[in-house]
Design a protein that fits this description.
By secondary structure, this protein is an alpha/beta fold. The chain is built from 10 helices and 11 strands. The strands form 3 sheets. Strands 3, 4, 5, 6, 9, 10 and 11 form a 7-stranded mixed beta sheet that branches. Strands 1-2 form a two-stranded antiparallel sheet. Strands 7-8 form a two-stranded parallel ribbon.
Length: 299
């Protein structure tokens, strides 16, 4: 029989990339972590990690076992919630969200959830998708309002994790500039037309995204400011620091003196959706997803 604690230790090793960092997170010694992993390998008859001077990486068998560890953790968390429901009549629902989604989509969806399920005790956690999607897999949160740009979801793929992605909104990025800018009157713009412009960006992911599009257009963007807040980025644009690339839902509330222009297709787009565990069709989760869809449609 596989020890659940050994699976928990292996998952921590996978998350942190080394025995020492996993030991710190679990409040164990590195030696104890190593012993748990070695015992797991003996019980399986297979190597689950590869050790090197640069850290620890999972083998294929290790990836399978981490997927199993996350599934076990999620099942235990669900069982805990069911026991609490029996004893208190309350349902605990934990929702993770990124900042602009939490600001513009989540608040309008919550009244429908509380009206349909008044006994729900709601918890909200803010975080970027690369942090919140693993929490869904582990059962630490029930769903995550998240996003990704062109390409896969920003989370480590784990066989058997059962993560389900429900699309909510296509969120195209706009070029934001002062109203008096020479290009402010255009209905659409191509990225190549902005080669000479200085930029202010609202998050590091947007910067990486801009650089990919700029490379295709044949130029290197001059970035004069980076922030972690789109409203702050627009304020810097209004102050004349540069132009910015802002998702459509982050264009509200408006900043006086600014103009947003869509980009010609294929336009940079943020894909917003909800991540859940595929095997969990909890009525509270279903209600909230439908409410989020309604909010996205109204947006």
């Amino acid at each position: 029989m596989i020890d659940v604690q050994r699976l928990r230790v292996l998952r921590a090793v996978a998350d942190h990339g080394s025995f020492s960092r996993a030991a710190g997170a679990l409040r164990l010694t590195p030696s104890a972590v190593s012993q748990h992993v070695a015992a797991l390998e003996r019980s399986l008859g297979a190597q689950v990690v590869t050790r090197s001077t640069r850290g620890v990486t999972l083998t294929q068998a290790g990836q399978i076992m981490v997927g199993a560890a996350e599934s076990v953790a999620a099942e235990l968390e669900q069982a805990k919630q069911q026991v609490e429901l029996l004893s208190t009549g309350r349902v605990q629902l934990t929702v993770a969200t990124f900042t602009s989604g939490g600001r513009h989509l989540l608040p309008g969806a919550l009244p429908r959830l509380t009206a349909a399920h008044p006994s729900t005790v709601l918890h909200v956690r803010e975080g970027e998708p690369e942090d919140t999607l693993p929490l869904v897999r582990q059962g630490a949160v029930d769903l995550a309002l998240a996003y990704h740009f062109d390409g896969p979801l920003p989370a480590r793929p784990v066989p058997g994790s059962g993560l389900r992605w429900t699309p909510i909104l296509e969120d195209p990025l706009h070029v934001v500039m002062p109203e008096g800018h020479r290009l402010a009157g255009r209905r659409t713009l191509e990225i190549a037309e902005l080669a000479a412009e200085p930029w202010v960006l609202g998050c590091l992911k947007t910067e990486a995204y801009l650089r990919r599009y700029a490379e295709r257009a044949g130029f290197e963007p001059e970035v004069r400011g980076t922030t972690t807040d789109y409203f702050f980025a627009r304020s810097l644009v209004a102050a004349g620091i540069g132009i910015s690339l802002i998702p459509s839902i982050a264009l509200v509330p408006s900043v006086p003196g600014l103009h947003a222009v869509p980009i010609e297709p294929p336009a940079p787009t943020r894909h917003i959706g909800v991540a859940t565990l595929g095997r969990r069709d909890h009525p509270h989760v279903t209600t909230l997803i439908e409410a989020l869809r309604e909010q996205a449609a109204s947006h």
